[in-house]
Amino acid sequence: MKVFRSLAELAAAEGQDLGHSDWLTVGQDRVQWFADATGDDHWIHLDPDRARAAGYPGTLVHGFLTLALIADFMQAIYRVDDVELVLNYGLDRVRFPAPVPTGSRLRGKAALVAVSPTDAGAKVTVRYEIEADGIAKPVCVADHHTMQFTTA
């Protein structure tokens, strides 16, 4: 994990890679949980036989589940010590360049795009590329915006 003492120190790293998370295996139990939580119960995520008949190795992880893992990866990749509160502000340029077979090992890779100071902290933009072990291209790419509020 990369640790910054302040938002000013983070801003000085603009344009740099922040590193990557550890690998996380996304199994069918998590896919089922996500389907139950969101109502997205499409057969490509839940019916391995039908998914194989469609030419896939089995079920596929939801794209939005893959995207949601950014929250977990962010906490593993970097932190700013003087930030008390981090709120999601939005996403841009979200893409899913490759499908994710259920059971894949995923990790997040992050690059700091911008730090824009505000009265109470900063708006921070980080580009995440989610990689799947054994798949040549990223399975998800997104610019994630957060509002980060300092303790001072």
Secondary-structure map:
Blueprint: E1 2-4, H1 7-11, E2 17-20, E3 24-25, H2 28-38, H3 43-46, H4 48-53, H5 63-68, H6 70-77, E4 78-80, E5 83-95, E6 105-118, E7 121-132, E8 140-150
Parallel strand pairs: 1-4
Antiparallel strand pairs: 2-6, 3-6, 5-8, 6-7, 7-8
Account of the 3D structure:
The chain is of the alpha+beta class. The protein has a single domain, classed as Hotdog Thioesterase (Thiol Ester Dehydrase, Chain A). It is built from 6 helices and 8 strands. The protein has helices spanning 7-11, 28-38, 43-46, 48-53, 63-68, 70-77, and strands at 2-4, 17-20, 24-25, 78-80, 83-95, 105-118, 121-132, 140-150. A hairpin with a 7-residue loop joins strand 7 and strand 8 (140-150). The longest helix has 11 residues, at 28-38. It is elongated and about 55 Å long. The model has no long low-confidence stretch (mean pLDDT 96).
Helix/strand order, N-terminal first? EHEEHHHHHEEEEE
The CATH architecture name reads Roll
Q: First CA to last CA: what distance?
A: 23 Å
Q: Give the number of helices.
A: 6
Based on Cα principal axes, name the global outline.
elongated
Q: Which spans have pLDDT < 50 for at least 5 consecutive residues?
A: none
Q: What is the name of the CATH class?
A: Alpha Beta
Indicate the CATH topology: Thiol Ester Dehydrase, Chain A
Q: How much helix, percentage-wise, in residues?
A: 25-40%
Rg, rounded, reads 17 Å
Largest sheet, strands/sense/barrel: 6 strands, antiparallel
Domain module tally: 1
What's the total count of β strands? 8
What is the SS-derived class? alpha+beta
User: Into which percentage range does the β-strand content fall?
Assistant: 35-45%
pLDDT averaged over residues: 96
CATH superfamily: Hotdog Thioesterase
